[in-house]
Amino acid sequence: MSTNVFDPASASVTVLGLGPMGRALATAFLDAGVRTTVWNRTPGRDAELVARGALTAGSAEEAVAASGLVVVCVVNYDASDAILRRETVTDALKGRTVVNLSADTPARARDTGEWAGRHGVRYLDGAIMTPAPSIGTPDAVFLYSGPRDLYEEHRPVLDVLGGAHTHLGEDIGRAASYDIALLDIFWTAMGGYAHAVAVARAEGISAGELTPFAQGIAAILPPLFEEFAHDVDSGTYSGELNPLTSGASTMAHIVHASEEHGIEASLMRAIEGQARRVIGLGHGADGFMRVAEVLGRTRRP
Ligand code: NDP
């Protein structure tokens, strides 16, 4: 008979930060039966959670003292610093584990890792790649980086948040590095989509009418990511089926059509500008991903 089955009722967690994501995390812990203590800078955001069984804390220090595992989910690392680096809170954190699921840059994650190391705080960095309603469902995606043994120790309780949990390595900045790359894709796609809808509307096409075709464009992307990753990792960049010169021409059409409607096209102008620069460097017959290689040439060592 196995004695290693995880019993959520034996676990306890503190959630600092009760925005939409912090509330979703706390709800998932509570639903699984984990003893959950919550705290938020602005009081009053915990009412629903307390009604569901959460323990409320009068201060961050008190909240931290309630659990061996402290999950932080606030807007950025200025906010998590404001909470964690107050002397009394730092003292209370000594020997406990902090999992910081707030989003920020890899440099901020590494800086927080160093701070934690200096203060005897056990630290994992993390990122959440799916929206708040996904938490507690199979669709949630969590990324972590930092000491593997610490991750393995807390994995059972983190698993109750649902979905896929991936430890990306010991470099504390690695989860934030993935986060930045993935958010780069997301926000530029959102910027493109919002612009497309504005231009389509100017042409008398509603957002709803565009939807099935927009979904068709989105469906093209997953296999392209795989093919393009191979191009970049192998240094090939074949433009046999779609050379950059042809792509740049369609980018110009988007700029012209937008500006004819008085709709600014700065995002597409920037993308077209990159493509034209790469063509100017003699890569017009290459595929679009040559842009990534050329962008990388200007990077600081
Ligand atoms: P927000 O990003 O709006 O963060 C709100 C939380 O940050 C509140 O608890 C707020 O406290 C706190 N906060 C802000 N400034 C400070 C400060 N100076 N000191 C202390 N606390 C502060 O809401 P979310 O909950 O949505 O997001 C939290 C994190 O999760 C973010 O990093 C976000 O990028 C990430 N995330 C969110 C997703 C989502 O779907 N919402 C999806 C994936 C990641 P107060 O109430 O007092 O203002």
TrEMBL record:
Pfam families: NAD_binding_2, RedAm-like_C
Top-level taxon of the source organism: Bacteria
Keyword tags: Oxidoreductase
Domain called NADPH-dependent reductive aminase-like C-terminal: residue spans: 171-296
GO molecular function: NADP binding; oxidoreductase activity
UniProt entry tagged with the keyword Flavoprotein: no
Domain 6-phosphogluconate dehydrogenase NADP-binding, residue spans: 13-169
Recorded family membership: Belongs to the HIBADH-related family.
PANTHER family the record matches: CYTOKINE-LIKE NUCLEAR FACTOR N-PAC, OXIDOREDUCTASE GLYR1-RELATED
Protein name: Pyrroline-5-carboxylate reductase
Source organism of the structure: Streptomyces glaucescens
Lineage: Bacteria, Bacillati, Actinomycetota, Actinomycetes, Kitasatosporales
